[in-house]
């Protein structure tokens, strides 16, 4: 099967489509508190999924990285308002060192093509 890579930087692709599955690289936003960053990241996720043939209701799995687990409840309040009942993906959330000090959350997504 063909592998399609989109928006490559020489280091990574923002999206890869293979076997009717969309893989998104980690999405971040470096401004605001964890709620604001989560909102912006989820907007990016939704835009990329729509651009490459999927949407948030077709998300299969999500990996969420938080700089500090104290932000878990705040991040979840945004996530829970965004994801629709009945379309909850498999999900993991872990505390992680981030690439930049200003990053509080990073989300990677795997979704089915519509």
UniProtKB/TrEMBL annotation:
CDD domains documented for this protein: YjgF_YER057c_UK114_like_2
Pfam families, A to Z: Ribonuc_L-PSP
Source superkingdom: Bacteria
SUPFAM superfamilies: YjgF-like
InterPro entries in the cross-refs: RidA_CS, RutC-like_sf, YjgF/YER057c/UK114, YoaB-like
PANTHER family for this protein: PTHR47328, RUTC FAMILY PROTEIN YOAB (PTHR47328:SF1)
Record family assignment: Belongs to the RutC family.
Protein name: Enamine deaminase RidA (YjgF/YER057c/UK114 family)
Organism whose genome encodes this protein: Metaclostridioides mangenotii
């Amino acid at each position: 099967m063909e592998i399609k890579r989109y928006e490559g930087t020489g280091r990574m692709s923002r999206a890869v489509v293979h076997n009717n599955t969309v893989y998104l690289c980690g999405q971040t936003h470096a401004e605001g508190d964890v709620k604001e960053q989560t909102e912006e990241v989820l907007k990016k996720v939704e835009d990329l999924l729509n651009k490459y043939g999927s949407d948030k209701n077709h998300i299969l799995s999500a990996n969420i990285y938080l700089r500090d687990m104290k932000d878990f409840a705040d991040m979840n309040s945004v996530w829970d308002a965004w994801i629709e009942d009945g379309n909850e993906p498999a999900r993991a959330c872990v505390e992680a060192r981030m690439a930049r000090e200003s990053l509080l959350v990073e989300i990677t997504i795997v979704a089915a093509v519509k």
